[in-house]
TrEMBL record:
InterPro entries: Amidase_CS, Amidase_dom, AS_sf, FAAH2. The lineage of its organism: Bacteria, Bacillati, Actinomycetota, Actinomycetes, Streptosporangiales. PROSITE patterns: AMIDASES. Signal peptide: none annotated. This is Amidase.
């Protein structure tokens, strides 16, 4: 087995035990990048010399007996929309193709402090908006399972590179499924943590425009890994108090154990998009595996998830509306078409011109939904849902025509409901259908990541291992 095939946990342990050198691990991943990235176009701004220099310093620290971080010497990728000092930050926009970040984002700083070695920047759609990772600045990222299907977005480059073995870990972010959906499309694990668990602080930007409230309150940073253990390890590294983040927690909450057996509520359909047969089959498999592991599984009707998804299309899109002309002026044609269809979908729910009262009432209703869901879940119940009502979409399904474009948004209700509510969610592979990975989503109570990850591990232990045909 080559080093690029090892998990992050295995690499970290081997480097710590002096059985693997960080230089050898990085070289193996760089060789894998050379072999598959020209086809997949998942990583940009790869700098082998810098990565190898960092790896040599990591090996010197091991030899000197220094205290080592939990990811010491482990290669990772960072997302093109996340500031990393001195590295490309184009947002997939041709006009910003040479832009670089002046300072690390908080989550990048946490990975650096844990000893991770940065290999490259993962590709995104323009402004990280679509569920398809293509842009005019860097081109299209392919799914390692099928060139004709999306690798997901906006962390599509992260998931594609991870599944293909370019790095064992990837950093992503999520405001509408941007971690969880790519993970499902490429057959890896993605964690959207509770809002505030991982700092979302970014260094002050030159732009005079402040982030909209939805971006501040809903966007999270999180990890993607090839397995649950790796994603859990990376989450522990990234999590931590940071009072610079207005929604950050001042201290990590104590994880109280569940009072009894953890119950699972299976939610298949909330009335926005009927699940595809392969999605239903994946849910059936995951429910059976959880029952085998000792979980109590029952099917639930949960209309509040549909309500939360509808609020996503109101609150996020109204927050984006003032800046939309400027954004679209810089965007590629794909983003312009996607936004037109997405706003048409929102208009079907809220009318052409929602007013300030709709917006205010939407935020007020959100608080009620959060309270009700937390009361339902506590620490002894989780939800099992689709990742999407459909398998991975065909490339550019969101811009083919208005009807299909709106159907894509509707199918993503499991991705859009959760950011509104701020609860943790994990996307975990559940198998293949017609040669494409199918994932399921697990949702837990606020700050109950451990409970959700335990259930994800139970599924992973029983699901077939997915290796793309590269």
């Amino acid at each position: 087995m080559e080093l690029w095939q090892l998990s992050a946990t295995q690499l970290a342990a081997g480097i710590r035990a002096r059985e693997i050198s960080a230089v050898d691990a990085v070289e193996s991943c760089l060789n894998r990048i050379d072999a598959v990235n020209p086809t997949l176009n998942a990583l940009v701004d790869v700098r082998p010399e810098e990565a190898l220099a960092d790896a040599r310093r990591a090996d010197e620290a091991v030899a000197a007996g220094e205290t080592l971080g939990p990811l010491h010497g482990v290669p990772v990728s960072t997302k093109l929309n996340t500031p990393q000092k001195g590295r490309l930050m184009s947002h997939g926009i041709a006009a910003l193709a040479g832009a670089t970040a002046a300072e690390d984002d908080a989550c990048v700083s946490a990975l650096r402090g844990a000893g991770a070695i940065f290999l490259g920047r993962s590709n995104v759609p323009a402004f990280s908006v679509r569920w398809f990772s293509t842009n005019d600045a860097h081109g299209r990222t392919l799914n390692p399972w099928s060139a004709g299907h999306t690798p997901g977005g906006s962390s599509g480059g992260a998931a594609s590179s991870l599944a293909a073995g370019m790095t064992p870990l990837a950093q992503g972010n999520d405001i509408g499924g941007s971690i969880r959906f790519p993970a499902a499309c490429c057959g890896v694990v993605g964690i959207r943590p509770t809002v505030g668990l991982v700092s979302n602080w970014m260094a002050p930007q030159d732009s005079p425009i402040e982030e909209p409230l939805t971006f501040q309150a809903w966007a999270v940073q999180g990890p993607l890994g090839r397995n649950v253990a790796d994603a859990r390890l990376a989450l522990r590294v990234m999590a931590g108090p940071d009072l610079r983040d207005p929604f950050g927690v001042p201290a990590l909450p104590e994880a109280a154990p569940a009072a009894g057996p953890v119950r699972v509520g299976l939610v298949r359909d909330v009335g926005l998009a009927a699940p595809h047969p392969s999605v239903n089959a994946a849910l059936d498999d995951a429910a059976r595996w959880l029952a085998e592991a000792g979980y109590e599984v029952e099917e639930l009707e949960l209309p509040l998830l549909a309500e939360a998804s509808r609020l996503w299309s109101l609150l996020l899109f109204e927050d984006m509306r003032p800046g939309l002309p400027g954004m679209l002026a810089m965007a590629d044609e794909g983003l312009r078409v996607h936004m037109r269809y997405a706003y048409e979908y929102a208009a079907e729910l809220w009318g052409d011109k929602p007013d300030i009262q709709d917006y205010i009432q939407g935020w007020a209703r959100r608080a009620t939904l959060i309270t009700r869901l937390q009361e339902l879940l506590g620490r002894d119940r989780i939800l099992l849902t689709p990742v999407s009502a459909e398998p991975p979409f065909e490339q550019d399904a969101d811009i083919d025509d208005p009807v299909r474009g709106r159907a894509v948004v509707a199918a993503q209700w499991p991705m859009t409901a959760l950011p509104v509510l701020g609860f943790p969610g994990v996307s975990v592979p559940a198998g293949l259908a017609d040669g494409l990975p199918i994932g399921v989503q697990l949702i837990g109570g606020r700050f109950a990541e451990d409970v959700v990850l335990d259930a994800a591990q139970a599924i992973e232990d029983r699901a077939p291992r997915l290796v793309p045909p590269l």
